[in-house]
Design brief:
Elements: H1 6-24, H2 29-45, H3 52-55, E1 72-77, E2 83-88, E3 94-98
Antiparallel strand pairs: 1-2, 2-3
Bound molecules: zinc ion.
Zinc ion is lined by residues 59, 61-62, 64, 88, 90-91, 93.
Length: 105
């Protein structure tokens, strides 16, 4: 049997933890936070990155599971570099994601 690389297993665990957070954040916010904290720890231990689509759903300060309109506030800002700001409703930390401009025609 082929052995799977540790990083692959770690990524799978991270995905599962985010799924669990998704299922639990409404009723058990604290539990969802613990799952994401664990996901982060797994990523660090294995020196891998949390995939971008998942990472933007996690508050880097309090590990809240961020859901637009529920646990986070999402705004599009056009001043300076255009970006999306995601505010954690639990601790107020703002995450900023740059918006890539389309190439000018
Ligand atoms: Zn937070």
């Amino acid at each position: 049997m082929k052995e799977r690389p540790a990083s692959e297993i770690a990524l799978e665990r991270i995905n599962i933890l985010f799924e669990l957070a998704e299922k639990n954040y409404r009723r058990r916010e604290e539990l969802a936070r613990r799952y994401l904290q664990l996901a982060k720890r797994i990523a660090m231990r294995n020196r891998i990155r949390i995939p971008q689509n998942l990472n933007r759903r996690m508050c880097k300060e309090c590990y809240s599971y961020l859901v637009p309109g529920v646990t986070s506030r999402v705004r599009v800002r056009s001043k300076r570099e255009p970006h999306v700001s995601i505010t954690c409703m639990n601790c107020g930390t703002v995450k900023r994601l740059p918006i890539k401009r389309r190439k000018q025609e």
